[in-house]
Amino acid sequence: MKRNHALILRSLALVVGLSTLFFNLIGCGGGSSPTVQQPQDAAAPDDSAGQGAPERNVLTTNMPALGTLSAGAQFDFVIRGEFVDELFQGSGRVLYDPSLVEPLKAERGAFIPSSNVFMARCNLAAGTLASPEPQLSGVIPFAFTGLPGERGHTAGRGELLRVRFRLLARPQAGAAVHLQNDMEYLQLRDAQGRRLSFDFASEEVSR
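The structure corresponding to this sequence follows.
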């Protein structure tokens, strides 16, 4: 009983710590609550079948060329990773132009085990990811972590995050959606809390 109680306390402390990390990501200490997907028992699928083992840690974002879509069309912005190291936790911020696109939902990728705690910014009142605070407009922070006593995700390839958007207007130039490539926010760590180095790339995909 004491052992189980201690584990519960450590788990709660970890969730609180992740919540603190999340609010640091959004740049404030309050506002509407994040979406928290609670742990469940399941293993993370690996979509690396038929591919060789990864040679380095890489993060890749992909989405369709928005100039080929019509206003009102929906599309997905996807963050994928391939890892030679075990991944225990990570965080980042997806930035978007609210005059061009509207976020509809964010979902954990299949590479993140359902036993992990996962958070994404969400306006609970509206039921969308659109933020009512002006300083947060155009920002979708996310974070995930394993629980105490767990190992990191095994090396391999898979999806980390998928965000569904609606296109409001075709962009004239520049990126309407992108992952903020800033070491202050974009972080990957192992179970010992050590930061993992990684390469970063973005690509356009056909719908």
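The chain has one helix and eleven strands.
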